[in-house]
Amino acid sequence: MERDGEAPIISLRNVWAGYDLDTVLEDVSFDLFPRDYVGLIGPNGGGKTTLIKVILGLIPPRSGSVQVMGSSAAEGRKYIGYVPQLQVSDKAFPINVWDVVSMGRIKPGFGSLRLKAEDRQRVEEALRQTGMLDLSKRSINEISGGQRQRVYIARALAAQPRILLLDEPTASVDPQASVQLYDLLARLNEEISILLISHDMTAISAYVKTIGCINRRLVYHRDKSISADMLDAGYECPVDLIAHGVPHRVLPAHDKDGERLE
Amino acid sequence: MIDFLREVLSYEFMRNALLAGVIVSAACGVVGTLVVLNRIVFISGGIAHAAYGGVGIAYFLGLNPVWGAVGFSLLSSLAMGYVHRKEKARADTIIGVMWALGMALGIIFVSLSPGYKADLMSYLFGSILAVSTGDLWLMAVIALVVLAFVLVFYRLLLAISFDETFSTVRNVPVGLLSMAMIVLIGLTVVISMRVVGLILVIALLTIPPAIANLYVREMRGIMVLSTGLSLLFMIAGLLVSYALNLPSGAVIILLAGLAYALAAISKGIFDKRRQIRETTAQKNDLELIR
Lengths: 262, 290
Prior knowledge:
heterodimer, A: alpha/beta, 6-stranded mixed beta sheet, B: mainly alpha, globular
């Protein structure tokens, strides 16, 4: 499938995936194009993590196909800057910010103590882009959750990715830091496509360009709003969060039957 | 004191013991850091105990027990590494079984062998004073291999220790490297066996990095500091055991354990004081504003 003559950078076709006897993703099809900024929301246990693993080639789909930059996921994932969810246990690890970000430069067959000049330059650039250069000598347990999230974004950027793939980027970040984080992502989106997956609707509604819903099945119309038919189809999106308590309305005003009122 | 040291160093077995201490400290400091940061202390204990199976079988066959230990610790590190990677859910159970099986095999083969077996105790509890010059060469070669590997692959080892998933996504051969890391543990176990014995190796691998980790927040720093600490414990333990005529391996570990307890307690007090100081400072700031 093409758009404006451009090929998708991530393309899932009728993907089924799961663990043992448990099917988690059912018939998921999805395209991510250059400069897209897509937020996928879904409840916990709705297959968000599985979707990420399938895209990164960490688990093979049972059926269907996954392509990244026109290649298999395992081949194409070098173009993906993966930003995992913050783990409490990471803080216990004795490592400083600079060393974490330098992991973005890792390639197989390389690993000695000293980095090449070009690699050092990329690490510095990524730290500058994320505003973490001044804290680069700090230990990972001496910085806040929001700063740690920036460090992981910097690590992803150091690899010069075409796509940023973020898993719950604001799960353990305070609201003010979240706003700054989304400002950063919006700036990065001028050059890099972003796919963001979260259970927290309030977090992404105001910032992404398009929104989809994932709960075993994926509903995505390349649209900013979540249509009532998406909800009626039984995807159990967090309705409260979609319609209330957000800076702007994502869900169009609708009556009980799910018809739009506009 | 000087006279005491001169007396101690006048014996070849004492000089060999100190050299063995230096070699083992370097290997244990570096590999032990990887063990502690990867939370695979249980695997290192398993490899060490299973290695006794090799000691017993070699003894039964009339071979040098050291080579039996080398073979068995390599074999068990490969097997435990495989289980650790492929059977995540039941790994600790299976490794625990292998741990005991190796030990049991060793005991049975030793009891089947005829003759006087007092020297076999040295593999279990160490006998740093009995390290020969030939032993030293073997230890030095193995230690160099271990240190060279860590030096060459430092950043990859750091990456897989910190974030395995991210490393996989960057196409780092995570499985291969983590197996190699576990083989390094097996090699380190073999060279530490002569110093503190198979039963106490687990302490020499974990206590120095655990102390260093209290004060240093960088992997290479922990490697260097725990090498120094472990050398300190060995020299002190050696001298104390010589002076009091106690088993050296056990004294070394006892000193290390005491140091860990002291370090952890003082660190706890220090952190608490700092918390109180900072809270008071914040309170004062607030009052100034009012």
